[in-house]
């Protein structure tokens, strides 16, 4: 179903972090941006579609105090809003937002970090663009910071802090950015496997809370009102977002799931784990019976590699890319 | 990242070091009483109460170099007195997310090291390119199901269908969970002694072990965290009491290589970047030296200079070293 293409070499190796691959497709310029986190650096590659041009850039984590400690980056992700695209980088010290090509930092938000380290780690993790003008970022305390983003410029402001989760946020996802109306448009996940479903607005509204099983939910997606969640046990669960009804449960992987992605036009689902396997599935919605079905389509084994990032490169799922711990390349696959 | 990583890293690396030392002491036929003394000295220093208290404080992981220095000191430490350390006080129950964070922190620490270890290569646990083998067979971890089953449910919670898919591997069900008691069956082989099984003596390695040092990428850029690391070392070593070996007869050399020739060769081919300059810091209680320093310090303030502000971390370090 898929075959391997030429890999893209990156300047350093990927760190073992959840969802460690960002992809942004720039159709008018026929290129795609990729981001891979290595410790305190984000490696950015801009790859032309003809495969002839690659340009690299590295972004450092910002440290408000000089040389007191390195700030490790937890995640880097592209946020696509109707008016603009931003690259958001979250670390132990705070949240950086850049123009999507990484050229200029437009916003910095510092986290409250204690003077001496405490037993509870402090960091930001979990990034999602929501609706027309919000970017939401999770924090290790379980709080979610909601930023209001103007259509241009750097006048980004913290609009709200959502305090519902009691454990560190792991991942967040949204759908219906800017276009259709959805009942729920944001889902957040935490280290206890708990999921919160939200409706965005001037004041975000909590629509539903789906409890976890004391097992971290490392990656989550939202598609046609269905939450797709991947867990440390290697299981995937599909829930109806607003009601919390469990539609499907899959014993998908033999190790911790690190990344999930959905191609919204085709309903293809990509899952990747530390067991070195990437799997492709198909989701189908049947509105009449209000059911969701999941079917397994394909496996790819990236030998001896703990996969930490996997994403489709386009909305149809025609191609996808994969990163692995300690690997200095982005591996690509396209449909045959 | 996690501030609770250092104790795990230290105890795991320290434990492995003990296994290796034990094996080398036997292989070189060191007299039993001397071997026992060495092991005793190192173990009691590792679990010295003051040292452990410092170790278990929440703190950032520093560089590989800093940790190596601590182990160098440890390997040369000698017995003080047998202290019983209570280790259970520090680890409040950790969630699965906490463990994964500690693990991710450790993985960042070990990233980009592709040193080949001969015993791993022989056991086919590591490839010749340095990467560890991840088998797609064998038992799944406790708490995980064998991949392959899709269950779908209706709106009222009843299971509507079951579908199997091919998982691309050869997995078996999880084994039972290991015991967390002081004594018990751990179930896993991790943490046990790899050297306890007798192995055929190495005659000639095909060049892999000799080349391994050359493949280490060591970062030689000036480290902006140097002061922080020195502070950490001072704090940790403040808890390590070191006696100068009084009697040279009781000391002996341990060779970690299979033969003296191999050790000699490794020394010759040692890449420069693995060496680092050693700065000797006089830390013993020397009355005369202290009096000298106090006199010099006095001269500074008398001349009307501002005394250095206590907020500078470098001064904290010097003050601490003087106090040792």
TrEMBL record, chain A:
GO terms for biological process: cilium assembly. One of its GO terms (cellular component) is ciliary basal body. Keywords: Repeat, WD repeat. Residues 1-334 form the WD repeat-containing protein 54 beta-propeller domain. The keyword Magnesium does not apply. InterPro entries: WD40/YVTN_repeat-like_dom_sf, WD40_repeat_dom_sf, WD40_rpt, WDR54_beta_prop, WDR55/POC1. SUPFAM superfamilies: WD40 repeat-like. The keyword Repeat applies. It holds the Pfam family WDR54. It comes from the Eukaryota. WD repeats lie at residues 250-291. PANTHER family: POC1 CENTRIOLAR PROTEIN HOMOLOG (PTHR44019:SF8), WD REPEAT-CONTAINING PROTEIN 55 (PTHR44019). This is WD repeat-containing protein 54. It comes from Collichthys lucidus (Big head croaker).
Automatic annotation (TrEMBL), chain B:
Residues 300-324 are annotated as: Disordered. It holds the Pfam family Oscp1. One of its GO terms (cellular component) is plasma membrane. Residues 303-312 have a biased composition (Polar residues). InterPro entries: OSCP1. This is Protein OSCP1. It comes from Collichthys lucidus (Big head croaker).
């Amino acid at each position: 179903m898929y075959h391997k293409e030429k890999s893209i070499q990156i300047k350093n190796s990927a760190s073992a972090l959840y969802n460690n691959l960002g992809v942004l497709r720039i159709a008018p310029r026929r290129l795609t941006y990729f981001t891979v986190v290595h410790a305190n650096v984000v490696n950015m590659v801009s790859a032309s579609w003809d495969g002839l041009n690659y340009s690299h850039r590295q972004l450092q984590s910002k440290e408000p105090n000089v040389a007191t400690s390195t700030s490790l980056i937890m995640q880097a992700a592209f946020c696509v809003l109707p008016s603009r695209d931003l690259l958001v980088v979250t670390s132990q010290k705070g949240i950086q937002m850049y123009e999507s090509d990484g050229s200029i930092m437009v916003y910095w938000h510092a986290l409250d970090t204690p003077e001496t380290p405490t037993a509870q780690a402090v960091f930001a993790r979990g990034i999602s663009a929501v609706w027309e003008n919000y970017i939401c970022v999770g924090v290790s305390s379980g709080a979610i910071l909601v930023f209001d983003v103007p259509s241009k410029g750097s006048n980004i402001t913290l609009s709200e802090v959502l305090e519902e989760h009691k454990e560190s946020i792991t991942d967040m996802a949204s759908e219906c950015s800017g276009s259709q109306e959805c009942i729920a448009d944001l889902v957040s996940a935490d280290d206890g496997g708990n999921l919160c479903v939200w409706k965005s607005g001037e004041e975000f509204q909590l629509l539903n809370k789906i409890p976890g099983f004391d097992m971290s939910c490392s990656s989550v997606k939202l598609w046609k009102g269905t939450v797709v969640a991947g867990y440390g046990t290697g299981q995937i669960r599909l829930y109806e977002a607003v009601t919390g009804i469990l539609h499907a449960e899959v014993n998908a992987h033999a190790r911790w799931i690190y990344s999930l992605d959905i191609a919204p036009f085709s309903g293809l689902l990509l899952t990747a784990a530390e067991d070195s396997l990437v799997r492709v599935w198909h989701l189908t919605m049947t509105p009449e019976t209000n059911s969701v079905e999941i079917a397994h389509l394909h496996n790819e084994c990236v030998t001896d590699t703990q996969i930490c990032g996997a994403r489709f490169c386009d909305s149809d799922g025609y191609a996808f890319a994969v990163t692995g711990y300690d690997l200095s390349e982005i591996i690509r696959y396209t449909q045959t | 990242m996690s501030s609770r990583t250092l104790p795990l890293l230290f105890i795991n690396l320290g434990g492995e070091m003990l296994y290796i030392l034990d094996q080398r002491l036997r292989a070189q036929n060191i007299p039993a009483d001397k071997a026992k003394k060495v092991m005793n000295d190192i173990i009691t220093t590792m679990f010295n109460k003051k040292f452990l208290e410092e170790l278990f404080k929440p703190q950032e992981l520093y560089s590989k170099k800093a940790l190596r220095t601590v182990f160098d000191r440890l390997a040369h430490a000698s017995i003080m007195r047998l202290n019983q350390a209570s280790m259970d006080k520090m680890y409040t129950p950790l969630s699965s997310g906490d463990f994964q964070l500690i693990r991710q922190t450790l993985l960042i620490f070990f990233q980009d090291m592709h040193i080949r270890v001969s015993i791993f290569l022989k056991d086919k646990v590591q490839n010749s390119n340095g990467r560890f083998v991840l088998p797609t067979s064998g038992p799944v971890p406790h708490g995980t199901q064998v991949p392959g089953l899709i269950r779908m449910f209706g709106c009222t919670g009843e299971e509507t269908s079951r579908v199997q898919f091919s998982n691309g591997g050869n997995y078996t069900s999880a084994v039972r969970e290991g015991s967390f008691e002081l004594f018990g069956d751990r179930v896993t082989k991790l943490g046990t002694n790899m050297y306890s099984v007798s192995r055929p003596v190495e005659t000639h390695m095909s060049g892999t072990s000799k080349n391994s040092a050359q493949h280490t990428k060591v970062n030689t850029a000036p480290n902006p965290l140097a002061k922080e690391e020195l502070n950490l070392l001072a704090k940790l070593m403040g808890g390590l009491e070191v006696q100068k070996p009084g009697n040279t007869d009781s000391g002996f050399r341990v060779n970690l290589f299979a033969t003296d020739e191999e050790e000699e060769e490794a020394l010759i081919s040692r890449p420069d970047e693995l060496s680092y300059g050693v700065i000797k810091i006089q830390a013993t209680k020397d009355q005369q030296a202290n009096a000298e320093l106090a006199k010099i310090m006095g001269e500074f303030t008398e001349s009307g200079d501002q005394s250095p502000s206590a907020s500078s971390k470098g001064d904290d370090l010097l003050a601490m070293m003087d106090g040792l």
